[in-house]
Amino acid sequence: MAERVLIAPSILAADFARLGEQVRQAEAAGADLIHVDVMDGRYVPNISVGPLVVRALRPVTGLPLDVHLMIVEPERYVEAFAAAGASYITVHVEACQHLDRTLALIREAGVHPGVTLNPATPVSLLEHALPLVDMVLVMTVNPGFGGQELLPYALRKISTIRLRLAECGNEHCLIEVDGGISPATLGPAVQAGANVLVMGSAIFGHPDGVVQAMAASRSAIKEASR
Ligand code: DX5
Ligand code: ZN
């Protein structure tokens, strides 16, 4: 089990009319990273935000900006997101023609490279890339929308990824889970070895606000880590 579990609130569930304020609230409430979901209407059906929003958020928070690219040909936009202030750029293994090259491009741009796979994509597809990344993102919903229900079968990949990372000497690589994560569902992900939890609706959609949401998540993590 991971020593410290980080929380990455996803701005997809935030109020975009008050985005800066919501990100500040999340930081003050103890968030560890800010997750930015980038969707192009092609790789996924939905359209969200681009480098402009990353640039706008950069001076608002001291937290790392964790940019999740759900777009085709992500290599075309690495430079723009790096220049905008991304700390991590994660690309989908299914969307990359030349995964190695794209990951190298991200590293050369001074950004932490991450790789992700959809719930139905096997770990074998990214095995060769594991020594090259600082984050592996395990999607626990089919990407495109917030507020979906977690697919438990996707969690089975976490222990395999942890094992393979250890085998290639990259045990410091973060393992992030994304989709349907809440205080009620995070237990099995944490127990399997995930150490970054993306949470959209569970944080920004919480009826009692971000502070309560963060507190509830921390206590669920503590419970799961016993
Ligand atoms: C889904 C996105 C997620 C989304 C998670 O395509 O990658 O980051 O914002 O939202 P919740 O936590 O509501 O499932
Ligand atoms: Zn995401």
Overview of this protein structure:
The protein is of the alpha/beta class and 226 residues long. 32% of the residues lie in helices and 18% in strands. It is built from eight helices and eight strands, in the order βαβαβαβαββαβαβαα. The chain has helices at residues 19-28, 51-57, 78-84, 99-108, 156-167, 186-192, 201-204, 210-225; strands at 6-9, 34-39, 65-70, 88-92, 112-117, 135-139, 174-178, 196-199. Strands 1-8-7-6-5-4-3-2 form an eight-stranded parallel sheet. α2 runs parallel beside α3. It starts with 5 loop residues before the first strand and ends with a helix. Bound molecules: D-xylitol-5-phosphate (DX5) and zinc ion (ZN). D-xylitol-5-phosphate binds next to β2, β8 and α7. Residues 10, 12-13, 35, 37, 68, 141, 143-148, 178-181, 198-202 line the site of D-xylitol-5-phosphate (DX5).
